[in-house]
Design a protein that fits this description.
This protein is α/β, with parallel strands linked by helices and 264 residues long. The chain folds into two domains: 6-125, Oxidized Rhodanese, domain 1, CATH 3.40.250; 140-263, Roll (2,3-Dihydroxybiphenyl 1,2-Dioxygenase, domain 1), CATH 3.10.180.10. 28% of the residues lie in helices and 30% in strands. The chain is built from eight helices and twelve strands. The strands form two sheets. The chain has a seven-stranded mixed beta sheet. The protein has a five-stranded parallel beta sheet with strand order 1-5-4-2-3. Strand 2, helix 3 (54-58) and strand 3 (66-67) form a beta-alpha-beta unit. The N and C termini lie far apart (89 Å).
Length: 264
């Protein structure tokens, strides 16, 4: 059958492309997102996609959300295996990665994808319910050591001993104390001068380096890496704890220590 009417042709094209309308690929408010989740709570053809990293997801997420890490090299490949006929509500920490994902999913032929405005950051700020939330990890729990360069470390140790009563061994002095929230737990802070030729403070050129006690070094280092903090070297483990190093914005090297106090 030959179609001569241009209006009829346009109408047919509109019908054929209606399923791919831009109205099915757009950003919606958090209020509309909440309503959509409530209406589709038991709908097997509806899915909430959390595009943050597994570490971020583990700290808390929206109920029922499926984690699909945008940073994973297999991200697009994972999308290609998903049902394109389902309805998806996507979010990341803010909106940047979700916006890119919206475009990718449209190109892959998904039928209906919505981006939640503000992302998980706004969700949390608005005190909306968070599921699977682990007890919030403390980052720094105290000062583990104060280290500084000296022209004559041994002579300086003697001076501190004679005038301030600080007795030192080869590694400096270990101040012991008790945890405020757990008085049975004994902690420690090391005071130690280093030779001014030491390489231990590198790449910093500063005279001091502070050691901070932390609760979970590996998890903290993952979070700091994701936040764009400069990491120095790899985590090192010893009987008395794990150590990692970072740089602050002013070039100070920071030592992070997850201690095993009973082995000190």
């Amino acid at each position: 059958m030959k179609i001569n009417s241009p209006f009829l042709i346009v109408a047919i094209l509109l019908i054929l492309t209606a399923g791919c309308s831009d109205s099915n690929f757009k950003t919606i408010s958090q209020e509309k997102a909440v309503l959509m989740m409530e209406e589709n709570h038991h709908n097997a053809d509806f899915m909430v996609l959390d595009l943050r990293t597994p570490a971020e997801y583990a700290e808390g997420h929206i109920e029922g959300a499926v984690n699909l890490d945008f940073k994973n090299e297999c991200f697009t490949g994972s999308l290609e295996t998903m049902d394109r006929d389902k309805t998806y509500l996507i979010h990341c920490r803010t909106v940047n990665k979700a916006g890119k994902t919206l475009d990718i999913m449209k190109e892959l032929g998904f039928k209906e994808v919505y981006l939640m405005d503000g992302g998980f950051k706004a969700w949390k700020e608005n005190d909306r319910p968070i599921f699977g939330q682990e007890t919030e990890m403390k980052r720094v729990t105290g000062v583990g050591g104060v280290f500084f360069k000296a022209e004559n470390p041994e002579g300086l140790k003697d001076w501190y001993h004679d005038h301030l009563g600080i007795e030192s061994d080869l590694y400096g002095h270990l101040f012991k104390w008790r945890e405020h929230d757990n008085p049975d737990q004994i902690g420690s802070t090391t005071w130690a001068p280093f030779t001014d030729k030491t390489e231990y403070f590198k790449p910093s050129e500063k005279q001091f380096m502070i050691n901070y006690r932390v609760e979970n070094l590996e998890k903290l280092m993952d979070l700091l890496r994701e936040e764009g903090v400069e990491i120095v070297g790899e985590i090192e483990s010893y009987p008395y704890g794990k150590f990692g190093w970072i740089m602050d914005p002013e070039g100070n090297k920071i030592e992070l220590w997850e201690p095993v106090d009973e082995n000190l």
